[in-house]
Automatic annotation (TrEMBL):
Role according to the record: Catalyzes the interconversion of methylthioribose-1-phosphate (MTR-1-P) into methylthioribulose-1-phosphate (MTRu-1-P).
Keyword field: Amino-acid biosynthesis, Isomerase, Methionine biosynthesis
Gene: mtnA
Protein name: Methylthioribose-1-phosphate isomerase
Active site as annotated: D240 (proton donor)
Gene3D superfamilies per UniProt: translation initiation factor eif-2b, domain 1, Translation initiation factor eif-2b, domain 2
EC number, UniProt record: 5.3.1.23
Length: 348
């Protein structure tokens, strides 16, 4: 029996709590985790059970809204003090993806408009649900805009997982492939495994197989040879934070692909919803790069792959300078250099 092809998703709101696909268990197991306390949400984000800039923002919004609904007080002042403390707690989980702060600051703006605690509780949950629904629309539009940009390309490379499970649905970098599949546009996707957490091998390869998109897995150090020998026609990646000048933070290894694209004359595209732009910073120099545990590098599953005590540098992201980016695909259209101007024109 041929398996049912679907575009997998990772987040589902269940009336009073969020259920997430445990992305740390993929591809070996498809398991779900029910999040009930704000610590459950924090732990899910910091341990990458849920990951991907938009998915992190949506999850944190539900977490804060759910906890707010359960916080007992009649005093709006006391409620706001509690809200600020829990907002800072969730913000401390991961620093690089701007969607986390973007989503929680949007909830805070709703809170500032509320006249009573009960009104605030209702508005916070409504806003979290709205953020979730809007993200699906943004990703679908990014997919359609990306499909147009890739109209002459078939063989495309990507890194990490900027896919459906990293967002509400469809993804950003992977959205053109999922939408293309629905329109019988069949891409040949080359997915970099993405050491050390292997989002490419474990997540993108799995996600694209679920959706029926042709995917070939390569190790990160095969990227240059693959571009040279497999006729790669474009590279498309996601984003965690795009600065006002177009400098883009994304999974570690992304800037290496951009440099290779310049060498081989291959277009390098970033796919990002407007919720991933941070106009408060002028350039990528101002983006905080998360550094994660050394064990992500020194172990592979249950195996230890490095000598005990070896010093490790484990930055989870890098910044691709805007002058290496050919175009930025957003839900509102394609942005081209000069990005400072095109971003300002589109997002202001
Ligand atoms: C549309 S997901 C954006 C971004 O998030 C991923 O990072 P992580 O897996 O550490 O959350 C990766 O950088 C994706 O490109």
């Amino acid at each position: 029996m041929t398996p049912q092809l679907t575009i997998p998703t990772s987040l589902e709101w269940h009336e009073d709590h969020l259920v997430i696909l445990d992305q740390q268990k993929l591809p070996g197991a498809v398991e779900y985790v029910h999040l009930y306390t704000i610590k459950d949400y924090y732990d899910a984000i910091i341990t990458l059970k849920v990951r991907g800039a938009p998915a992190i923002g949506i999850t944190a919004a539900y977490g804060l809204a759910q906890a707010a609904g359960e916080y007992e007080t009649e005093s709006l002042e006391e409620f706001k003090t509690w809200f600020e403390k829990e907002k800072q707690y969730l913000l401390s989980s991961r620093p690089t993806a701007v969607n986390l702060s973007w989503a929680l600051e949007r909830l805070e703006r709703e809170l500032d408009q509320a006249g009573t605690v009960n009104e605030a509780k209702t508005d916070l949950l409504h806003t979290a649900i709205q953020i979730h629904a809007e993200d699906e629309d943004m990703c679908r539009r990014i997919g359609e805009n990306g499909l147009e940009l890739l109209h002459d390309a078939q063989r495309v490379m990507t890194i990490c997982n900027a896919g459906s499970i990293a967002t509400s649905k469809y993804g950003t970098a992977l959205a053109p492939f999922h939408i293309g599949r629905e329109k019988d546009r069949n891409f040949q996707v080359f997915a970099c495994e993405t050491r050390p957490v292997l989002q490419g091998a474990r997540l993108t390869a799995w996600e694209l197989q679920q959706s029926g998109v042709d995917v070939t897995l390569i190790t990160d150090n095969m990227a240059a040879h693959t571009m040279k020998t497999k006729g790669i026609e474009a590279v498309i990646v996601g984003a965690d934070r795009v600065a006002a000048n177009g400098d883009t933070a994304n999974k570690i290894g992304t800037s290496s692909l951009a440099i290779l694209c310049k060498h081989f004359g291959i277009p390098f595209y970033v796919a990002a919803p407007s919720s991933t732009f941070d106009l408060t910073i002028d350039s990528g120099d101002d983006i905080e790069i998360e550094e994660r545990s050394s064990t992500e590098v020194t172990t592979l599953g249950q195996s230890v792959i490095a000598p005990e005590g070896v010093p490790v540098f484990n930055p989870a992201f890098d910044v691709t300078p805007h002058d290496l980016i050919s175009a930025i695909i957003t839900e509102n259209g394609i942005l081209y250099p000069d990005f400072k101007q095109s971003i300002a024109d589109t997002l202001n």
